Amino acid sequence: MSKTIVVYGSSTGTCESIAQTIASKLGAEVIAVSDLTAEQLAEADNILLGSSTWGAGELQDDWYDGIEIVKKADLSGKKVAVFGCGDSASYSDTFCSAMKELYDAAQEAGATLVGAVSTDGYEFDDSDAVVDGHFVGLALDDVNEDGKTEERIDAWIPTLGF
Predict the structure, then answer these.
(1) Are the CB atoms for 84 and 129 separated by under 8 Å?
(2) Of 11, 13, 27, 91, whose CB has the highest number of CB atoms within 10 Å?
(3) Which domain holds residue 61?
(4) What is the number of domains present in the chain?
(5) What region does 62 belong to: left with phi over 0, alpha with psi -120 to 50, or beta?
(6) PANTHER family, alphabetically (predicted)?
(7) How far does Cα 60 stand from its chain's mean position?
(8) Distance CA 100, CA 106 (A)
(9) What is the pTM of this model?
(10) Can you say how many angstroms the Cα of residue 149 is from the centroid of all Cα atoms in its chain?
(11) Tens digits of per-residue pLDDT, 3-45?
């Protein structure tokens, strides 16, 4: 049986709540990135990485040490998916951009990235996390579109192949 972990960074509790929701649907363990160890990544088969986006598209603060752990890990043979929280109205030009940093770190570590999501149905101006017309992971706006969060999670999970 494969082991799945959901690693998140959250300042306001929104990304933590979303991580808990995703984990409960997957039967996965939830880990705050501030508590993340290299051993936890090594023991997992499937890894979900989540962050809210701050400032001009940056990762949530707790990720600054955590991203280094991810980059240094050997994630070959592991499936990794990313998710992000953003505000598509107030920060429409950097919506969920932090996901791209998580995506790049996992890719650098040799992971198989899964879970790209079409930008169809989203209202935003720009995002570093959009590659070839798709978000690199699940983008969520629990501020302005909280009514879509659950349905987006439910549509995303089957695409992961965990």
Answers:
(1) yes
(2) 91
(3) 4-159
(4) 1
(5) alpha
(6) FLAVODOXIN 1, FLAVODOXIN 2
(7) 11
(8) 10
(9) 0.96
(10) 14
(11) 999 999 999 999 999 999 999 999 999 999 999 999 999 999 9
